[in-house]
Design goal:
Elements: H1 2-39, H2 43-46, H3 61-67, H4 70-102, H5 109-121, H6 126-135, H7 153-165, H8 168-176, H9 181-192, H10 194-210, H11 213-218, H12 227-236, H13 238-242, H14 249-252, H15 257-290
Helix pairs in contact: 1-15, 3-15, 4-7, 4-10, 4-12, 10-15, 12-15
């Protein structure tokens, strides 16, 4: 009798749990779906309201306006380049520092750690940062996206915690076989750390893909404008674009400021959504494993 009561309680809890999670998932996904159907609706028709579950008057005019701007493709090239190169270099450099910080025989390891930790909470401000980048001749160059982001203290703490969990016997046996520290790092620690490295890579990739503030402050050349900065300008200039003389009259009748903005949001969101599922399986595993030990 007691086991039947417990089974009913478990079933009730399961039902409530799945119901809550389903509602939470719908609340999370619906805003994205709302933007998508709005971008696929005729702009003038959308202004009437009532577009909640499917496009009432299907139209691709909003995407035609967004995709015909040549700055979009320049932004895609810059964003893809900085995301790929920035992620690879940042993960590799941060992993090297994390490996060194995980070694107990590193001279000055504790002072290094506290210096890194200090920079996590305190910074010099935007103007001194700008002056440093200017003195390094990074302003108005593609490398202003890459070099300042080579090292992340937060990611170093996560990777350092993971490296310290790897049995010391692995390092000792490799040392006995004559392997140096760099070879041990590349051939042993990197392959063993694939989940947490994928997690850090995902964080870096999302940061680079969504970043626009550094481009807005540190660059003025159009060919260095990433996708997010272009889309931000397009969203701000949507009212001008919708009435532009370069947009054919028949297209102007099918677009609005709001639907152009929605189309721009979809264009910027879809690429990272396509990449995320391939790394999602590493996300929770790498973060949890890397946070077990300090």
């Amino acid at each position: 009798m007691r086991s039947m009561y417990q089974a009913k309680r478990v079933d009730l809890f399961t039902i409530c749990n799945y119901t809550f999670l389903t509602l939470f998932c719908l609340l999370t996904v619906y805003p994205l779906f709302f933007v998508l159907i709005g971008s696929l609706n005729d702009g003038n028709d959308y202004m009437r309201g009532g577009v909640y579950f499917f496009p009432r008057d299907f139209s691709l005019a909003n995407y035609n306006v967004v995709l015909q701007d040549e700055r979009l493709y320049t932004g895609f090239k810059v964003s893809i380049g900085r995301t790929v190169l920035g992620t690879l270099t940042s993960v590799f450099f941060t992993a090297m520092v994390s490996y060194a910080m995980s070694r107990n025989n590193l001279i000055g390891r504790t002072p290094y750690y506290w210096v890194h930790l200090f920079t996590l909470f305190f910074g010099g401000g935007l103007i001194p940062y700008f002056l440093v980048l200017k003195s390094l001749a990074l302003i108005n160059t593609f490398w202003v996206y890459i070099i300042p982001g080579l090292f992340s203290v937060f990611n170093m703490i996560i990777l350092n915690a993971f490296f310290r969990e790897i049995p010391e016997e692995i390092h000792e046996s490799a040392t006995v076989d004559g392997a140096g520290e760099f070879r041990i790092f590349l051939l042993l620690f990197i392959p063993l750390s694939a989940p947490v490295l994928a997690t850090v890579a995902l964080w870096n990739a999302v940061h680079h893909w969504n970043s626009f503030f550094d481009a807005m402050i540190f660059t003025t050349k159009p060919h260095l404008m990433p996708l997010q900065l272009f889309l931000m300008k397009m969203i701000r200039e949507a009212d001008v674009i919708s009435n532009s003389q370069f947009v054919p009259p028949q297209v102007q009748r099918q677009i609005s400021v709001q639907t152009i903005r929605m189309a721009a949001i979809v264009v910027s969101t879809v690429p990272i959504l396509l990449v995320y599922p391939f790394l999602q399986r590493f996300f929770v595993t790498g973060f949890m494993v890397g946070s077990l030990k300090g």
